[in-house]
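Query structure, 202 tokens:
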């Protein structure tokens, strides 16, 4: 295994005095959204949707940040391996112990190297990947996730609608139609007022 693995028993490491990493910026953005009262109802519906799609599955979560979504995944999934590229952040998050015992592990991993992650996973999840990364980079990470999971795995992606730019529902659907591979099955896109959720089976 080429990545570093952390569990809740790993002691926290104080953050370095350096500019925020991409993982920390993603984590801050999620915290900001979770604190907005006007988003609470839609976020609650989105959490329920994601949990229903991934219930009982072994989930590989890409770009987990500080684990806001990881906590909700762990309540429904068989288990979660949460990945991001900031080792210090993941150590601190794991040490906080806010996750069901034995259900979550964190691993520091370059998001472009998902094929090197070991283990058996029948689902993949990522929140706000498209809005956090340039389009070519996000597409490469998603393609790597598809290759790592293989046929039969379920993939769930969520993000902000504003990341799609302007336009109506038809325009939003056109922008998202190329995210699943051409042979994906059961493709379902839910568009809310602020967020979208895309699920499909490889």
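Result returned for the query:
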């Amino acid at each position: 295994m080429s990545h570093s693995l952390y569990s809740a028993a790993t002691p926290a490491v104080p953050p370095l005095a350096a500019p925020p990493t991409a993982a920390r910026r993603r984590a801050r953005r999620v915290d900001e959204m979770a604190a907005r009262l006007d988003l609470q109802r839609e976020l609650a519906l989105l959490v329920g949707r994601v949990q229903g799609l991934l219930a009982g599955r072994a989930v590989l979560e890409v770009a987990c940040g500080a684990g806001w979504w990881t906590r909700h995944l762990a309540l429904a999934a068989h288990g979660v391996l949460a990945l991001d590229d900031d080792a210090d952040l993941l150590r601190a998050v794991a040490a906080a112990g806010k996750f069901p015992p034995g259900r979550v592990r964190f691993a520091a991993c370059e998001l472009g190297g998902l094929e090197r992650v070991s283990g058996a996973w029948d689902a993949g999840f990522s929140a706000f990947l498209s809005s956090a990364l340039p389009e070519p980079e996000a597409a490469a990470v998603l393609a790597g996730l598809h290759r790592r999971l293989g046929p039969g795995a379920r993939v769930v992606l969520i993000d902000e609608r504003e990341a799609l730019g302007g336009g109506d529902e038809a325009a939003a659907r056109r922008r998202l139609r190329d995210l699943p591979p051409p042979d994906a099955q059961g493709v379902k896109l839910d568009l809310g007022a602020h967020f979208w959720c895309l699920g499909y089976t490889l």
